[in-house]
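U., I forgot to send this yesterday:
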Amino acid sequence: MSEPDLLDPRLEPSAAYIAETQREDGLIPWYPDGPADPWDHVESAMGLSVAGRTDAAERAYAWLADAQHDDGGWWAAYGGEESSPNGHEGEEPRKETHRAAYAAVGVWTHYRVTGDRSFLAEYWPTVRDALDFALAQQTPTGEVYWTVDAEGEPHRDALVSGCASVYKSLECGAAVAGALDREDARGRWLDARARLGEALREHPDRFDRTWESKSRYAMDWYYPVLCGVLDGDRARERLDSGWDRFVEPEQGCRCVADEPWVTVAESCELALSLAAVGRRERARELVEWLFEWTDEEGVFWTGYQLEDGEFWPGERPTWTGGAALLADDALADRTPASDVFTDHRPE
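Result:
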């Protein structure tokens, strides 16, 4: 399949960069010869899907299936060309629940773009095992522990943004199960999603119990809206409550409220959140600001340091381009998957 004729020409460099950075085995690192992780790998693959680069996207999912562990998870990071589980120097190998579960969002998005039921059936075991890996860490009170170590021992705490991402993954997994008539899995995942949503909406005390609150990070602010945990007036109130704290006019969304750094990926995800609550014009305006933060080839930098007046860090992450392509698809309705992040009703 060729690239959609209506793809914004300003985003063609992002799609090309992701495809060019992808390794021969299908893994999409953050940048050439850099580390990778399963969540950002899927985000980049979704960008390829909505940009019409379906062959490259399918190679990405083939890598995901091949690299999946017997317990359904993946290492949280893969380092450089060797794909070791030590993608971040000094960190112990671990498997994170939200990074595993996100496979369901990617597989569902690709199916929505292509309509290829055989693809959906082929990657059903990957989705099933990934979600079951995550739900093995769901507690009786609904939250999902964020990670397990190499021996499978959980860190008994939960992240708001990570759990919101799992909530969205369960929605997409339920849609996959429904399309394949896997009603037992669908019912089980929707029940787990309901319990997780209740924890996120009504029990903030179940999160950030053993570390400093992550509320200064923009993702904790808008992810409950992006992932459908909050909707309607409650979602709009959530976005309004943090707008002045996180959004720098005509520049973008700060990654961290108290740091002078706007980031493209967070800004694109915020645009998706705005679109989900009907504020599409504001979302389009936000995305337009971001084209200032590209290099001479049109590829997005991570972000811009407002006080130093420089792009920082000096990297062009593939997943940033993926987020931009997903925001563009949602706002322009370019593919059948354009509502994946704006309509949160399980199919």
